[in-house]
Design a protein that fits this description.
heterodimer, A: mainly alpha, abc type-2 transporter like fold, 2 domains, four-stranded mixed β-sheet, 15 helices, 66% helix, elongated, B: alpha/beta, D-Maltodextrin-Binding Protein, domain 2, 17 helices, 7% strand
């Protein structure tokens, strides 16, 4: 068991890296799940609005109340335009609205001109902004009609708000089995890649070292044993990482692994684990120094994460990027995750999920073929 | 002797493959990946007609007219298809449409779990508006019929003049550009490692080269100046390549004052190298420990300034603004942001002054710590 022990000895030296990546992964997921909206399920759209009431009348206060009940109010100093600009740039505020002086008076006289002064992101021609602006126009139009129908501005706004609060009935065609661990499995693609390439390649670099290989091949130690012990140790370590990561999903959703959705994600991640270990083996066969391993692990893992939709959803990536991404297993892993969770315009479709996992399995075979070709070409080299 | 030291320090930094990879190669690769991932993000946010199926259970001509008006022309809000309920639900399940509008006694919406929330909100607000207008007309017809005509006229009046827009800036407000500012800053901050090695190579107890230099007759101030200037030139050179790559190869909009990015990067290179020199000169810590300290400044500082999540800097600004004032990576990134986005120079000048003060502090610290060192034995 000398080779087997050697692998674990090298792992022990690299345990710090494993712990570091593990901590980064868990912290990131915790931040995303606690700050971000991880669910795609319909909720009435609320945008972030900074509001200033210069009129300060009963009518304007009713409007402020309506906005604060139906949208998120953001604190902002309207006098400090640099601060307001920064809030908009970083998406902390979608819309800044000032209710101009004379709002109630103008509304009472049927004059709708220049009631509000607004600031918004110039390229933020987004659905949320359109939605809010249409609501604002609707309020003015309805209040104006009530005033024309004989009401005071204050009464008109009160009636308008009442009417606006009776919403259209919305129902779902299916009940969705939702798993909060979805986001965890989404990011697992990156962590499996970076951990496997960094740790496994560093281990294998030592095991496949020219001098050690040459010494072992000319010793009485059987080559078969040498290879089998290496494969056994690497498999135990990689499956160990994977089991810890899968069990970690229970921290985010205690029922994550008992649902169909959870089991499908576990199955998907296992196939991807094999792909990532094979990539690590290829890296270790091709590079010569641990410095190069560190560089390649970052390039390969970040490259796949950005091009295949781990960090940014596939639905917002350009067609060009997606057509490149298709040639990597991470693309199909994320496609399966999206379909399993019904995310980003995908729907839960077992055929699509099976197809995506099947293509990942195809990558397992293809990468194995690449490994065999490299090993064969290395062994046929005349000199050791 | 100054130029001799300068030349060989320059050659040494350019030949340090590992540091050059992180300061230049990795920055360019990461920039390309950022571009691939974020290049299309605002395109996907731009408005396209929402695909909607309409299932008519009870005829409502006025609502049909409204839908036709909203789905007409190039900038149409909706893309409407009329069909029966089973076909509509099938298309909804397949994700081919966002929602089905059921026109019956009441108008309602049927959606899938994958339906986009904002699209659903827009269509529901259209329906809300239609039903509210009908309710208003009914109410006024009952309570004050003589003013009904005025109310109908008011409902159809053009109210687009109610909102006046006040533009805060004409600059590119794509928040994802901040990733590129962070990227350029990260490359420059990685340059602090060059400063660290300059300090390590001048200390006799930490490197063989340092020991040799300690016994040479060259004045320490001359070799320190030459070392630091050469490393600043290397770091600045890397940052110029990164800025040019981001601006001209990736085509990222860095604003109208993009030429000012270069002097900013030059000042930042001084700051970064002096930080590395100061850390390198601290006590008798091992070189690994010193590299660790710089990594905290570079990567953790980068994290706080928004390298991993672009809104992080603003989050820090709202909860602990002092951190943004003393974090070199945040100050540098914010300088690029101020140049590209802010209409005035106030924020930029504040950041530039902070960088100059930091450079002065780090340099003084480095010089004070590294002078008059004597070794009993090496």
């Amino acid at each position: 068991m000398q080779v087997f022990k050697l692998v674990f000895k090298v792992l022990k030296k690299n345990l710090g890296t494993v712990v570091m990546y593990g901590c980064i992964f868990f912290t990131t997921i915790m931040l995303i799940t606690s700050f971000g909206d991880t669910s795609d399920e319909y909720t009435s759209t609320k945008i972030d609005v900074a509001i200033r009431d210069l009129d300060n009348t009963s009518a304007s206060r009713q409007l402020v109340d309506w906005v604060s009940e139906n949208h998120n109010i953001v604190d902002a100093d309207f006098e400090d335009e640099d601060e307001l600009l920064a809030k908009m740039y970083f998406n902390f505020c979608d819309y800044a609205i000032t209710i101009n002086e004379g709002f109630e008076e103008k509304l009472a006289g049927g004059n709708t001109e220049d009631l509000f002064t607004v600031s918004k992101r110039p390229n933020g021609y987004s659905y949320g902004t359109i939605y809010f602006e249409s609501q604002l126009n609707s309020i003015v139009s309805d209040a104006n009609a009530y005033v024309a129908g004989g009401m005071t501005a204050d009464e008109a706004l009160q009636k308008t708000v009442e009417v606006l609060n009776s919403k259209t009935e919305i129902s779902f065609i299916e009940e969705k089995e939702d798993s909060a661990a979805g986001i965890y499995f989404n990011y697992m693609a990156y962590i499996l890649l970076v951990m496997n390439i960094t740790v496994m390649s560093t281990i294998l670099l030592v095991v496949f070292k020219k001098d050690i290989t040459a010494r072992t091949y000319c010793s009485s130690f059987s080559q078969l044993k040498y290879i089998l012990q290496t494969i056994g140790a690497v498999s135990i370590i990689s499956v160990g990482f994977w089991v810890i990561l899968v069990l970690g999903s229970l921290c985010f959703d205690s029922s994550a692994l008992s649902s169909t959705v959870g089991l499908l994600m576990v199955c998907n991640s296992f196939v991807f684990l094999i792909c990532s270990v094979e990539i690590a083996v290829i890296v270790s066969l091709l590079v010569k120094s641990s410095m190069a391993v560190s560089a390649i692990s970052n390039i390969v893992s970040l490259g796949m994460a950005f091009l295949c939709g781990v960090f940014v959803p596939q639905s917002v990536l350009s067609d060009g990027v997606l057509s490149v991404g298709r040639f990597f297993p991470a693309y199909w892993y994320i496609k399966a995750v999206d379909s399993i969770n019904g995310w980003h315009g995908s729907t839960y479709n077992i055929t699509e999920i099976t197809k995506a996992i099947g293509i990942e399995a195809f990558f397992v075979v293809a990468l194995m073929a690449v490994i065999l070709v490299i090993v064969r070409s290395k062994r046929t080299q005349k000199s050791l | 002797m100054f130029f001799h030291n300068f030349k060989y320090r320059l050659l040494q930094t350019v030949r340090a493959k590992e540091i050059m990879f992180w300061a230049l190669g990795f920055t360019i690769i990461l920039g390309t990946l950022f571009y691939a991932a974020f290049g299309n993000i605002y395109e996907s946010e731009k408005f396209t007609a929402i695909p909607v199926a309409v299932v008519t259970e009870k005829e409502d001509k006025s609502f049909d007219e409204l839908l036709n008006a909203l789905s007409d022309g190039d900038g149409a809000l909706l893309s409407v298809q009329y069909m029966d309920s089973s076909k509509a639900y099938e298309m909804l399940e397949e994700g081919e449409i966002e929602m089905a509008v059921i026109v019956d006694e009441k108008i309602s919406l049927r959606i899938a779990s994958s339906s986009d929330s904002v699209s659903v909100s827009i269509v529901s607000s259209v329906i809300d508006e239609y039903t509210s207008k009908a309710a208003i007309i009914n109410e006024i017809a009952k309570t004050n019929p003589k003013d009904l005509d005025n109310a109908i006229k008011a409902l159809s009046a053009d109210i687009t003049n109610a909102i006046t827009e006040h533009k805060l800036t004409d600059a590119n407000m794509n928040g994802y550009t901040d990733y590129f500012f962070n990227l350029i800053a990260m490359g420059i901050m990685f340059g602090s490692t060059f400063g660290l090695f300059a300090a390590l190579h001048s200390q006799g107890n930490l490197s063989a080269l340092g020991a040799r230099r300690c016994v040479s007759p060259t004045k320490k101030i001359v070799s320190a100046l030459a070392d630091n200037l050469a490393t600043v030139v290397s770091v600045f050179g890397c940052s110029v390549v990164t800025i040019v790559y981001v601006k001209f190869v990736l085509g990222v909009d860095l604003g109208n004052r993009f030429l000012l990015f270069f002097p900013t990067a030059f000042v930042a290179s001084f700051m970064s190298v002096s930080l590395g020199y100061a850390v390198g000169s601290v006590g008798r810590l091992s070189d690994k420990a010193k590299e660790g300290i710089l990594l905290v400044f570079t990567l953790f500082g980068g994290f706080l300034s928004g390298l991993m999540a672009n809104s992080m800097r603003q989050l820090v600004e709202e909860s602990a603004p002092i951190v943004n004032r003393i974090n070199p990576a945040a100050v540098l990134t914010d300088s690029f942001y101020a140049l590209a986005v802010c209409p005035n120079y106030d924020r930029y000048v504040r950041n530039l002054t902070t960088m100059l003060v930091m450079t002065a502090i780090f340099t003084t610290f480095g010089i004070v710590l590294s002078r008059r060192k004597k070794y009993a034995s090496l």
